[in-house]
Amino acid sequence: MINSPTKKESPAIERPPVVAVMGHIDHGKSKLLDYIRHTNVVENESGGITQHTSAYEVSHQERKITFLDTPGHAAFTAMRDRGARIADLAILVVSAEEGVKPQTLEALESIKTQKIPFVVAINKIDKPEADPTKTRQGLAENGVFVEGYGGNVPCAEISALTGAGVNELLDLLLLAAEMEELTGKASSPATGFVLESHLDPRSGNTATLIVKDGTLRLGDFLVIGRAVTKIKQLNDFRRQPAPALTFSAPAEIFGFSDLPPVGAPFRAFADKSEATAFAATAAGPEKSNSVLPPPAEGAIVIPLIVKTDVAGTLEAVLKELAKLTVEQTALELIGAGVGAITENDVQTLSAFPRAKIIGFRVKTDKGALALAEKTGVVIKTSDVIYQLSEWLEAELQAVAPQQITEEILGRAKILKTFGRTKDKQIVGATVVSGVITAGRSCKIIRRETEIGRGRIIGLQVQKIKVSEVGGNDQFGAEIEARAEIAIGDYLEIFTANVK
User: Fold this and answer.
1) % of residues, the chain, pLDDT over 90
2) From 2.40.30.10, 3.10.20.740, 3.40.50.620, 2.40.100.10, which CATH number describes the 191-281 domain?
3) What distances in angstroms separate CA 196 from CA 24, 102, 236, 284, 339, one per listed residue?
């Protein structure tokens, strides 16, 4: 928890709630926000998946609400958890068609871990297969008892497509916010959290902040960890310049020397010396645990650089790649960062065999493309995270050593030998087990030791040519093998399977 600086304290007043919108992929989280703010974000999302944690401010009944749109895909668990930690309330969106799904439960776990109140929105009630009662039952089976179904969790049936029930949902949110008695002091210097950070081609290192208390002003000195930055430009959630932003508002700040770590708390000061003194006592930023495991000894390695558009998605991509396991292979992370794929990235990997660069929602500089073609470094970009992980898994499988397994199909004992011409030998034998088939490879076994390998060219039973022999039949065979076959040896017929 962040303590406000000790200055003249103004009376605490009601502040707008910060609400995380959470749930399973494609259950309508972004469509709900789309309807609420009357814009269209869903159509611009790659693969129909929200890939960022975005913040929006809306007005309902002349009261403000800040919404956080959190990703539903499993790869974005850390971003979803962070959204729940920063929020005051949550909406758990559940489809009336599909009911409770895996990411519904993951979102619920995030809500419970952060101990924040939540409202259930049963969405897609306009669909023919909608069954809100069954959805309530599914929620109850997972420990969520909504009002009218044995519990006290507020619930609204909605259609994010038509807007049915959305106003009632917003009413429930404002009621829940009143119950929480959320307050702030507008005259205090701002405190809050870093929601997201990225490298803007024109403005440099940029961060989206959520102000949880106080007022953030142009010219303030911002402390994040041990870094101090003067606010020279302050934008609201619409990316419009603002002289000041108060509690619960999203804010966009530019000009950081390094990308601020996502989820980190911030604190604003009007005086630079106070900010510097506070920063000197602050803990350094938390290090991400989303790194790839070191390659095992003897593994075939693919050297890798990962570039993404924002810090939060870099964290998500690395976490997803850490799940990839192909035997006797490994990804070795040479570098990771935010921003376009550059010539320097390619140069870094140019001396490595099998080198790859993957980019998530980023562009590739022309110089990087030209150098990659010259050096053989492979660049792969995508706007959908699982496409990158699937591609890298295929690349690992392509370099993995082939595993050859041998299946014994039949065994025969040599009874007679009838001479040899170069590598071809005529023998008489009896089937011990399985089937002996012409054209198959065979092992020559002497006293349980393999002395050579060969191939059965042809088979005869009572001087009649056959393709295979089974049971306990005796037969004649022409064998192609360098090792000389002797009476008492065994032939093992086998097939090799490559995995």
Assistant:
1) 45
2) 2.40.30.10
3) 21, 25, 14, 18, 14
